Amino acid sequence: MYRDIPEELRSLIEPVVEDAGLELVDVTLRRGRSPWLLRITLDTPAGDGRVLVDQCAALSREIGTQLDVADAIASSYRLEVSSPGLDRVLARDVDFARACGSEVALETQHPIEGRRRFRGRLLHFDGDVVSIEVDGRAFRIPFSEVTGAKAIYAFSRADFTGGAGR
User: Fold this and answer.
1) With 50 as the cut, is the pLDDT of residue 166 above it?
2) Alpha helices (runs of H) in 4-52, residue ranges in sequence order
3) Average pLDDT of the chain?
4) Is 0.90 topped by the overall pTM?
5) Which residues contact 161 (CB under 8 A, 6 or more apart)?
């Protein structure tokens, strides 16, 4: 989640991303055996996921240089820079607001009504509460409890027919 990005990483990464005309969606650092994995997710201001591969490559080089100069990662690491993809990560308030009406999957820190995983239609998001309908039942989940979420891409016939709509 965007709110969980360590400030020392966000302060190094976000200005580079914004200078490129993009938005920082999420940063995850997976520690463990070396090399660690630093995964950065970017999007366009329109939230359409149309970040070019060349943009990701250029930003990867620039961000990697910034992180190395600041000695921001305590171990050797592998850097991945990408767009949100089809099953796009929902990490910021704006991502949840844009996903209203769509199918989403989310997980909570603690069980809510006996469950931690929810998959259904995102009904509403007001900044504090996520409302999701799962199997005809509405759940109100405090946003502070959400530990991860993604929009589920709904494939259509056009995806397989090149837009011909046959």
Assistant:
1) no
2) 7-19
3) 91
4) no
5) none
More confident residue, 163 or 156: 156
**To which residue do tokens 């990697």 refer?**
64
- Is it true that domain 93-151 has CATH number 2.30.30.370? no
Q: How far apart are CA 86 and CA 79, in angstroms?
A: 21
Residue 48: phi and psi, rounded to 5, are -95, 0
Q: Whose structure tokens read 């997976």?
A: 30
CATH class of the domain at 2-82: alpha beta
* All structural domains of the chain with their residue ranges: 2-82, 93-151
Query: One fold for both 2-82 and 93-151?
Result: no
Closest CA to 28 of 61, 66, 69, 77: 77
Of the two residues 79 and 158, the one the predictor is more confident about is: 79
